[in-house]
Protein 1
Amino acid sequence: MPDSAPAVQPRSEVLLSRYRAVRAFTEKIQAQLTAEDCVVQSMPEASPVKWHLAHTTWFFETFLLEPRPEFRPFAPEFRVLFNSYYNTVGDQHPRPERGILTRPTRERVLSYRHHVDEKLADLIRNEAIAEPVLEVGIQHEQQHQELMLMDLKHLFSSNPLLPAYQPYVKSAPHPGAEVAPGLQWHESPGGLVEVGHHGGEFGFDNEFPVHQEFLRPFALANRLVTNREYLSFVEEGGYEQPDLWLSAGWDAVQESGWRAPLYWAQKDGEWFEFTLGGEHPLELDVPVCHLSYYEADAFARWSGYRLPREAEWEHMARHLPVQGNFVDQGHLHPRVGTESGDHPAQMFGDVWEWTGSPYVAYPGYRVPDGALGEYNGKFMSDQWVLRGGACVTSASHTRATYRNFFKAHERWMFSGLRLARDLDGHE
Amino acid sequence: MPDSAPAVQPRSEVLLSRYRAVRAFTEKIQAQLTAEDCVVQSMPEASPVKWHLAHTTWFFETFLLEPRPEFRPFAPEFRVLFNSYYNTVGDQHPRPERGILTRPTRERVLSYRHHVDEKLADLIRNEAIAEPVLEVGIQHEQQHQELMLMDLKHLFSSNPLLPAYQPYVKSAPHPGAEVAPGLQWHESPGGLVEVGHHGGEFGFDNEFPVHQEFLRPFALANRLVTNREYLSFVEEGGYEQPDLWLSAGWDAVQESGWRAPLYWAQKDGEWFEFTLGGEHPLELDVPVCHLSYYEADAFARWSGYRLPREAEWEHMARHLPVQGNFVDQGHLHPRVGTESGDHPAQMFGDVWEWTGSPYVAYPGYRVPDGALGEYNGKFMSDQWVLRGGACVTSASHTRATYRNFFKAHERWMFSGLRLARDLDGHE
Amino acid sequence: MPDSAPAVQPRSEVLLSRYRAVRAFTEKIQAQLTAEDCVVQSMPEASPVKWHLAHTTWFFETFLLEPRPEFRPFAPEFRVLFNSYYNTVGDQHPRPERGILTRPTRERVLSYRHHVDEKLADLIRNEAIAEPVLEVGIQHEQQHQELMLMDLKHLFSSNPLLPAYQPYVKSAPHPGAEVAPGLQWHESPGGLVEVGHHGGEFGFDNEFPVHQEFLRPFALANRLVTNREYLSFVEEGGYEQPDLWLSAGWDAVQESGWRAPLYWAQKDGEWFEFTLGGEHPLELDVPVCHLSYYEADAFARWSGYRLPREAEWEHMARHLPVQGNFVDQGHLHPRVGTESGDHPAQMFGDVWEWTGSPYVAYPGYRVPDGALGEYNGKFMSDQWVLRGGACVTSASHTRATYRNFFKAHERWMFSGLRLARDLDGHE
Amino acid sequence: MPDSAPAVQPRSEVLLSRYRAVRAFTEKIQAQLTAEDCVVQSMPEASPVKWHLAHTTWFFETFLLEPRPEFRPFAPEFRVLFNSYYNTVGDQHPRPERGILTRPTRERVLSYRHHVDEKLADLIRNEAIAEPVLEVGIQHEQQHQELMLMDLKHLFSSNPLLPAYQPYVKSAPHPGAEVAPGLQWHESPGGLVEVGHHGGEFGFDNEFPVHQEFLRPFALANRLVTNREYLSFVEEGGYEQPDLWLSAGWDAVQESGWRAPLYWAQKDGEWFEFTLGGEHPLELDVPVCHLSYYEADAFARWSGYRLPREAEWEHMARHLPVQGNFVDQGHLHPRVGTESGDHPAQMFGDVWEWTGSPYVAYPGYRVPDGALGEYNGKFMSDQWVLRGGACVTSASHTRATYRNFFKAHERWMFSGLRLARDLDGHE
């Protein structure tokens, strides 16, 4: 472009470039894997990497290409094979059997991706696209990027060879920051506060509408709970004391034989942690990760504190910059925290933070019309909210109002916790 | 009593009389059953009537007699046999095996009751009792009276002979009231409201502390949802439309083959309902009963409304008298509602009303010390709050702040629903 | 009876008297139990005593009364409730739910028994009965007498109070016989031998027809394996050595956590055995009882011997008198063996002896016509033959050709073993 | 080689050539598959193709290389990863998790194969090999070739795309032989016959020793049961009539929803069969395949006949040439039978024939010493014998005395049946 007035990039170019960047990042994640790594499913909750590659493409094809009159499916049978849970769209290949799909091959799935990418690029260039749906598709793809890394970690952890996805790098963010700061508290007087997304930028339906909640005075810890702290809980018998646990949590401990976070292993007295860089001695100053809600809750009780409510967390995070250890850094493991200054540190990135808030609709929430109404609303039971994003989340995917959610017993996501406490004299 | 100055009954007499009345009512419930009826367990969640007879006695023995120096157990092995879930007390006979305890016989369990009653009476008369614990024991026994009737209903419903516990009486509360009133709405502007128990009268730990919540303008229906309304949902395909259901609810429908509320059966095209008076044609104006949370939620969505939040319900009920169709009436089945006047009707009694609120601790909640800390706190996950009491609840056992809770898929309690809606232009 | 001409009892009187004696014995078994003991089912394989009382009556009603034109059912719904597995008759109440039938009460089931007994007595007296079916009914009732005691033992063993059905008596058959004889062998040259029932006396269909089998020279032990011998196997690590076990047996050991026979328990280093007389220190000279096929097989392998084949056992037992420790003695537990003389001892009574023969049809076997064809034939897969009868079997119910059968993992019947070996130089 | 005196190939060359041919055939099977096809496990009973590639190599490495002083493992962790069930060797990677082993890659497993092949070749050439163990290893590899094709067929059948392993060819053996011959009988007078392997050529331990069995006069059908015959059974309600089934078989029908053989599907009224050539209309004259024991037994009962005993089958097959439709033909599906002449046809190849004989030890059987004792003996319970080999079996791997065995409910092996009947006047 010749030197001239500042080039205002047309909207369609911005969109296309963003679409392509996100799509490319998905393919980058799988590029260093063998086709074999991409086809296997290690548990019903996880999906094969190849399935993610196809499903994210299916999403764009189904919601943006299929409504158009000239639409011809890439392969008609993909409509069922790669539908995750959209009853409005139709039948679905059973979730626990995603791992038997050795066909279509990864190569063919990549062709599927490129075919849809070309069609999409045409539509975007021609400004013939429903932009809000495109944006949901992009955000959806980012969620699946995180799922790919979670699912792959679970798969590799199940293999006795404990393969590494990438080389391991020690977790300090920079020299001199190898030790986690001491525990401190950031206080808030509470009161009637606003919760929820104001609009403008993208937000999922479950972040709306803005509404008011009344909070009592509270404080949040300056940083995430560390492996060192959690190890004390383990070594002081936290997993043997039923009075520390919710009843359902204690049942889970007994039935599943939990004795430590997922991916911890004790060998000859020493503790190791399996990471996307393979298994290594547990780094004590790194935030603890891969906890169930029950473990996070039991640890908080043992500490004499509690989990934050989601409104408390959001109120505290509302005006902080969305910066931290995200997937963009490529570290793929939580990092030692730094001093927090005026505000709590590590609010974004590193690990998703369990809150003590069940995942339910905000007052005034409305399920969107059509198939996308199935995106979030139907999951509003029997799950808990997590906040902040993790080291496998894209920085551009999260924000203070973002509500992630998992079941109380789940542990394969990058989940940790931050402590909270009441300020009015009793905890 | 000859005419004289009003006799002020001493506190100990009041207590003793209340204790004896509640204990006697428990025995009355089982008196019309055979010993065989009392020993069997029809599912892991339910317990045999005999076990309830013993466990409620164990509660008084363990928490009031055992701490005393002169204590001698009635039978040392009962300490484990009849402990429900108090890890602080010690081991427990496994819950799913409560039904294999043909020994001790019912007769011996009744002796156990009378033995403990005598010891308790002495303590109460001598004012040597921890009154708050006694009160918990009495409330606890009332909860188990309700459980006895729930569990018995489930047991009898599982028997192809469909035996009746008592004669069946049609459900209209009085002549001329055979038809449920039309649906109307009682509005509230919401705002910052108080929720929770103010103390004074008895309340469970989970009702404390009083705190503030901010509510948007809302309305509650004037009465409970009826069988007629729910039957429309059934007949218009409510159980076949996944978009009406939470995802976990739809899974439950598929896996459990639900097609109607528990205890409904269709025979030759006609609908019947099993009651404690046996199986009878479905009475259409009676409140619907024995719904899971998922069904209540799906029905509300199908109706275009929603479930109340527990704070909304409590705010509306706060100043209403605790009157309704309780176990004291002996009807043991919900009854047709009456006109509501200035306030919603049927807020107390008939059926427990599902709310859209997960069961979690109130802000500032503290778990009580000691074994009684296990009473409520450890169940604060994966359950939902129900309000108001049912036709198998004692009138003296419930109140506006009372929080009952069950899992989303459970149906054997007397659970129904009342509709709610937002008042700010969108539902 | 004064000395006189030998009174020839008419056939109908003989039959009636036998019918009544067997029916009375059934009621005697349950007479010392409470109604509560009789209603509960402790596992799907076992049935409540009350169910046995009713089902045996149903058998006579269905197969002898129902075919008659004047037949009126005692209670029409019993046709399904108390049908065990006769698809030819029609539907069946599900087996695992036999224990929820608190109604009909035991009292009513006893009325049912007496009602059918009167009808049957009339038919027998009037010689209007199908005698072979009557005989099957009587034999069937004797089988259920044994099942009642097996099932009751399992029920009582599941109760932490470990109740006793009757007083405990030490197991030596008479003073001076407290010690089991040493292991000796009774040899047979084998060859072409006859196997199966010759007719005349009653035999079940599965004992027919007589046919020839070729046996190699073999020997059977002079007595049953004792607790002392089995305890050596336990203490020398028999349950920890996979090479001693069939693959499916080793799986069962791992999954079920078997470490000793059913009903053995080790407390403070001492071994106890639960019996119908309650729990008592293990008597070492008594035959071991309540073994699975897998355990019997592993013990035999560990001993350097093997289990007998059923043809070997029958060949050796063919001409022995059917005498031993049967239910008629009332001991209800195996007894110390005595010297064997010319023939192996304890071939009848004490415990059923596992053979190494799967339960399949004899060559030329024909399934009987009609519903009684379901009695034995359809179970001829996935089970193993046991021989000889046990201390809970009627002496008049067993014989050398009798084929009992159970699944390889089952242990609640009174099952033990006798060792066998080849005589041709290699085991 | 120049023309000269007949070259006597040295024994080591014969062995090496045989070893190499069998090993090469294994690799040929997988050569037309993607790496993705080779890693996935479609059910716990099946294994991934890659696992078979490795395990067969592990077998040679463990039993032939490891005992040698100079042994260095190719990869020490393979010792556990690729051990199937040899407790004597040590721990095993859990069978249901064989499918999560994306590493080692197929490429590395092929390197493992070639590494071991070189070592083996050296040993064979130097005549430093335990030839009987080498022979077991070769036979073992042939068994796994068959398993690879069975497991692959199951995997592909589970994929909604129904991929084909190779092109489909209609099943007639040659033009003019498209129709199965009519049912005829080949008779035998029975009597005292020899059963078992005489030694000389290779045989598995379970084929020994030769012993005598006494057979009644019997007849075997001239050919295998066809799809046409089995379809009549299906269409005439065979799967709805409990009286045709063993009790355990009827349970399996109910629980598994069987309505036809595995791999049959009815679409718009037409029947299809899934084959290694994809899904095609059912060829009615082809032998029925993929039956459980229960189905084979029910079909035989419905036909008025029965399954052969294994001694009958072996007696009839003893002097027949081992010729038929084997894997060597490459058809990989049973073929229409031809006229039988003096002897029954299709005794070898096409499908394994269920016998009515449970799989137990022959009289005088001895378990081999050492780890290879685990090869067959520990599976001698709860399985049934099949005879004759199938279209996925190597011709050089089977013989008249060969005893294959599967559980009664299993269906993914190539299993069918031949009818038998008694000759003594009844059946």
Note: Chain D has a mean pLDDT of 95.
Protein 2
Amino acid sequence: MSTTGLREYLDGPHKAARDLVRDGLAANAELLDAGLGLSRAEYRDKVLEVMQQVTAEGHTSRGFPKEFGGQGDLGGFIAGFETLAFGDLSLMVKAGVQFGLFAGAILHLGTSRHHEEYLTDALEGRLLGCFAMTETGHGSNVQALGTTATYDPATEEFVVHTPTAAARKDYIGNAARHGRMATVFAQLVVGGERHGVHCLLVPIRTTDGQPMPGVTLTDCGPKLGLNGVDNGRIVFDQVRVPRTALLDRYAQVDAEGTYSSEIENPDRRFFTMLGTLVQGRVSVGGAAINASKVALTIAIRYADRRRQFGAPGSADEALLLDYRMHQRRLLPLLARTYALHFAQAELVDEFVRIFGGEDVVDKFEHDQRALEAQAAGTKALGTWHATETIQMCREACGGAGYLAENRLSTLKADTDVFTTFEGDNTVLLQLVAKGLLTNYRESFGKLDPLGMARFIAGQAVEIAVEKTALRTLIERLRDAVPNRNDAADPDAGLRDDAYHSGLLRFREEHMLAAVARRLKRGIDDGVEPFEVFNRCQDHVIAAGRAHVERVVLEAFATAVKAAPEGIASDRLKDLYDLHALATIEAERAWYLEHGRLSTARSKAIISLVNELCATVRPYAGELVDAFGVPGAAVDVPMVVPSQHE
Amino acid sequence: MSTTGLREYLDGPHKAARDLVRDGLAANAELLDAGLGLSRAEYRDKVLEVMQQVTAEGHTSRGFPKEFGGQGDLGGFIAGFETLAFGDLSLMVKAGVQFGLFAGAILHLGTSRHHEEYLTDALEGRLLGCFAMTETGHGSNVQALGTTATYDPATEEFVVHTPTAAARKDYIGNAARHGRMATVFAQLVVGGERHGVHCLLVPIRTTDGQPMPGVTLTDCGPKLGLNGVDNGRIVFDQVRVPRTALLDRYAQVDAEGTYSSEIENPDRRFFTMLGTLVQGRVSVGGAAINASKVALTIAIRYADRRRQFGAPGSADEALLLDYRMHQRRLLPLLARTYALHFAQAELVDEFVRIFGGEDVVDKFEHDQRALEAQAAGTKALGTWHATETIQMCREACGGAGYLAENRLSTLKADTDVFTTFEGDNTVLLQLVAKGLLTNYRESFGKLDPLGMARFIAGQAVEIAVEKTALRTLIERLRDAVPNRNDAADPDAGLRDDAYHSGLLRFREEHMLAAVARRLKRGIDDGVEPFEVFNRCQDHVIAAGRAHVERVVLEAFATAVKAAPEGIASDRLKDLYDLHALATIEAERAWYLEHGRLSTARSKAIISLVNELCATVRPYAGELVDAFGVPGAAVDVPMVVPSQHE
């Protein structure tokens, strides 16, 4: 297999953007150790310094319009951001806060006057900003934020205020030290009427770093990781900002205090505004997948040189990677990393298709909701995968893996929060399932396509599905899945991708139909809607996950088929099969329970996963080489022997 | 339920020792924040200072003989050590190195001259020491250590030497800063002949803290956690120590250079020496279980006050702990923590029974091997449980869980290494399985009861089992398991503990028999023994785990039955049922594959786990109260509202 060819295939259309960031990381390799040797304050300043240097190289504005110094290249922007995850993750997160969230909110929620006044400064790193959404009391449920922005027509100002301790802005990146301005999400109150959550630009620090009057800034203190990012808390005490501070792309308040919006439904308006911020989730998912690549590169190279115990009579002990258990622990995770890589690439393509044009929100609302669900699902699976993979890699390297110098522990600590930031993963999978359940609306009756929160709250009381219709669907599914009677030849077709896809599709659709039926039944029985939802919550989340698993699997299958000549696609197919069968193996209880696997076939799958581990093992090193992680990030002491060895 | 009564029941016979440590932790509560505010060097010194204070209070020598200032109370010693895990874990680990490992090695491997010269100083914290076993190149495979100790009869000295970079002592607690002496494990060479690994006392620092001549000491640098412990590396360059430095309980070298040992077989001698160190594994397992209690106390109290989303029309949002998914994530882990607690208590009782008397090694060798397996298994499951539980608790607390002030992140970082130190968990489960496989020796033929490493290496070539005998065994098992035809009434007997135990016993015995058969077949077929073992390695480890799961389950069942009046034992039974059924649920694919569950019953188990979560939920708060974690360890900002709220 040609590693170069495979690496180019993985890098895809945004290879140049990725390589630029790789070069930047290599040039700033000393940052990788900065978190260990510096005090927290020094580390934060060092991260800022490198971020501003990277900014000067022009990467960070790549995704923004040309008139503000950008290149209008959304796909390259995201690819570059993902690649930052090969380096120091505090740098990546700080850049994400500044350019993705802060500048992104100005771009997407503001209008030309905001763009002209702030965007160039933000993109060139002169105006450092915060994205002040989350509060101490509300993270997942953004619609219930407590901060208020009340319009005062006498002075044509908004008064931004923190009414309770729970409404304090919390965990806000750039708030503790560097941020001068914040995009603040608050309940907009105009003429005594509440219009829901909107976003305003609020200065929080003077140019010499002092808090603005009425603004209290505190430090969140040390964290498990990402200590190069200055997360802090913001409390507003009747802080006045001009009327123009409202980011008014979707809603306007005129001087007299008249509120207007082209989107009449408040829920729809809220989700439209939030929808423009999907880029954050797309980026975090990609970053998590790339962090997994770093960990696997380290752990697999280590396992391919570290020896322990071994065959009697042989001169050497055995390599860790020759042990079945070690293969079992690492290689399915390697295969899954490839699968998620290709799923992420599909997601980025779709993101560029939808957001790459001009003002597309109204034209493609359906596509946009689908994109949000895909982003939510990929983010959830990608970040959980990172947590699991990095943990496994750490354990697979024993005590050496626990030392900071070998980087796995830093990766683990830094990525850990990914599972709950930019949307808690369990909440995100509910969002995915909710989107899919609306596909049952023909049989279900009307189900408001917006508003996860409302759905959770059980307001979807109009559900009017015919039970028989759903039963028919389930029976149709049962007949459609291949190899139903597999006991006679349990190995037949196990490496057929249509078989894998058929099983995963069956599971997804069966779970969705079953959840829909349970929800319908509960509501028919007069159970309180919240209780109806809550009784099925684990089922809802499992259904969301089943969907994303299927999407990820098919993305990998598609990528195997599309691989150009020169890539040893039979080897990529081995890796795909390992991923597919390990995924089915993990859910084989469900397939057994639903008559989709015979017990003989279930056991055959376990054996084949073992065999495929052994098949992939000889080129596992090449498969991690193809990730193209810069040497500085992976040439750690335990992998590269010191001169003493 | 009476929390006081339950807490006393959990504390068991060593309540006084536990309470003493609880009081000490409360008195030194400031140490819990020390790791955050201090430099690494200051934190290490602070930990030493508190350790010496705790030492002065007499707890740390509790397990040692009275003539050296101890109390001869092994059980209280372990219980106290476990309780240290409610506080700063660097303190616990440093105390473990000093008193458990360093002083323990002197006690168990040395003779009266070592005891008299060093033990009192070690136990009173004046002589700080290291346990120098692990090397850069060898952690799990201790028999292959590279350090040498060569006897020089001319001077009556041993020459301790590090021949290769891989033989450098690594990750050694107390080595980087505080240790003055080390118990060094080295290949003993006498008269040109190698006698295997033995232990010697080697001074490594002068009283004013300088390295001894020929000793090079370096710092392992920052770690993911436990940064209050000064782990370091030791290299010996022809360091000479007197002949009396050999800890010579099991083997002696006389002045002329004659080696003698009452244990002739070198493997048996090695495992006997190592066996005396089982206390370390017993202690780490217990500490990990207690760290889980801290995390669950924090996360469950948080979930019982934090609200997010909720029922429409209701004034409040819903409590996190009322969500099914949240219950599903936390409550089975709570139940499992109780199960492991009782299994650990049984292990400690057994440890005290075997080690509490005088010089019991020869009398109870069989019991001792069984104890080692039980300790290995409980350590593996307990430490993996801690990793999983603390991770889940962190995620269940979202961004707040990531902040150091809320302690979950510190717990996570500090406990992470437990899965691989004091024996890598996968290697330990192999050890468990190996011990069990020797129970098949009647049918297997002779299998050396010692020597995991040798077994792994496939030297057990004399296996001569009759396949038919094993088949018969499996069939007998199949008929013995209850409720084989359960499809007619899938709910019947699901809460019967004999049913749970029967299923887990069936699984354990079936897996062991099947592994034995596979090993036998491979060897009969002439496959290279290492390859035979390696092909089954995942199966071997799963069998070891199945055994430990059964032991843990039965310990919980026994504890429910033995609960005194005043404990609401029906509630304890609910919790036990939750643990039992969640354990079966996790392995239901296997039971389906082996005809032990019908699909209807498998689904019924899933439903019942959900129901039991709801049953346990109202008293989950009382169940964590009963752990008796001191307030300082769990009254974190996110749980105890600040005055601003």
Note: Residues 442-468 of chain A have pLDDT under 50 and may be disordered.
